[in-house]
Amino acid sequence: MDSGELIKEFLWPQNGFLFKEMELSPVLCKPKLIPLKSVTLEKLEKMQDEAMEKLKEMNEQQGQEQTHNQQDAPSTRSASPADEPGGPSTTDIWQAD
């Protein structure tokens, strides 16, 4: 060996590991719009609203029937001084002390 020559070491893939640096870059994609309410939640709310409307209609019909029945039926109650406004109010069955 000559004194002027430097010894070089060669690393081949068979002799060692090779590493490659990966740079991470942002991946752009379409924005996805997320609904505030799901389809099933909207269906449930619609069903609940319909049920409430039916209940209100039934209550109104019952109220109308009761007022109609009260107007048609003759009054069988006897007039007493307790029934008059401003008169003494007494309890028919018992009175709590």
TrEMBL record:
<feature type="compositionally biased region" description="Polar residues">
    <location>
        <begin position="88"/>
        <end position="97"/>
    </location>
</feature>
<feature type="compositionally biased region" description="Basic and acidic residues">
    <location>
        <begin position="50"/>
        <end position="59"/>
    </location>
</feature>
<protein>
    <submittedName>
        <fullName>(pine wood nematode) hypothetical protein</fullName>
    </submittedName>
</protein>
<dbReference type="GO" id="GO:0034464">
    <property type="term" value="C:BBSome"/>
</dbReference>
<dbReference type="Pfam" id="PF14777">
    <property type="entry name" value="BBIP10"/>
</dbReference>
<feature type="compositionally biased region" description="Low complexity">
    <location>
        <begin position="60"/>
        <end position="71"/>
    </location>
</feature>
<dbReference type="GO" id="GO:0060271">
    <property type="term" value="P:cilium assembly"/>
</dbReference>
<dbReference type="InterPro" id="IPR028233">
    <property type="entry name" value="BBIP10"/>
</dbReference>
<feature type="region of interest" description="Disordered">
    <location>
        <begin position="50"/>
        <end position="97"/>
    </location>
</feature>
<dbReference type="GO" id="GO:0097500">
    <property type="term" value="P:receptor localization to non-motile cilium"/>
</dbReference>
